[in-house]
Amino acid sequence: MNNNAIGVFDSGLGGLTCVKELNKLIPNENIIYFGDNARVPYGARGKETILEYARQDIAFIKKHNVKMIIAACGTVSSVLGSGKTSDGDIAFSGVLLPAAQTACSVTKNGKIGVIGTDATIKSGSYGKAIRSIRPELTVIGNSCPLFVPLVENGFTDRDNPVTKLVVEQYLSPLKKEGVDTLILGCTHYPIIRDTIADYMGENVTLISSGEEVAKYAYNMLMRNDMLTDGEEAGTNTYYTSDSVELFEENAHAFLGNSINGKIYKVGIDELISY
Ligand code: DGL
Prior knowledge:
By secondary structure, this protein is an alpha/beta fold. It is built from twelve helices and eleven strands. Strands 4-5-3-1-2-10-11 form a seven-stranded mixed β-sheet, sandwiched between helices. It has a four-stranded parallel β-sheet with strand order 7-6-8-9, with helices on both faces. A hairpin with a 2-residue loop joins strand 4 (86-87) and strand 5 (90-93). The two termini are 30 Å apart.
């Protein structure tokens, strides 16, 4: 048993899709969330910059005495690589292996699509993770750089014409290849899941990387006897490097509810001091 909090971070709000699932699966756990909203998006940046930001994010989360760190960001997970499973003495998971494992177990025709940011797709990280489990599978990736700005700017209605057009543009190569499983390899994408599902059709299974890493973390904590024994509802505490008001306003779409915890600002000066 371990009553320390679970630390979750992302370049922005996308990692809240993991928090939403953690709250559902293990409601008694305390969660510390950090969103680097002042520096989002990470996905269009170079590898060295993303690694440096990730190092600072992890150092900030570690200050809160957490029992596990979740990189709920496809971009950070991709530059760190799927081999990374621990951070010193703290359990660690990115989104690659959890999403890859699920995709490998649900595909029937052996064709898996992966969509993510430029950095994620260029790294080939999901393909490597999938082939480490099932080398015979075909993986087809496509980067979708406009998805994050669409989500961040609220173009999220199922029938939004702009989003529908962009979805068609990015996903038509994957549809043509006949993938039967599609990994939403960026934690922002579940917010436009319905539009993606409408375009891909009901025979394609969509996999949310944020949800999968939450399930993976739950299993990892359970197997290692690290779940809390607290019987009361846990607390969520949020930190953002940008405006607290904006975080509160926009978090709703990712959590499916109004925000359920205190939000604090972390200055960039503090982050770069790590
Ligand atoms: N949530 C990030 C991810 O999962 C995407 C946003 C970004 O580019 O920073 O890749």
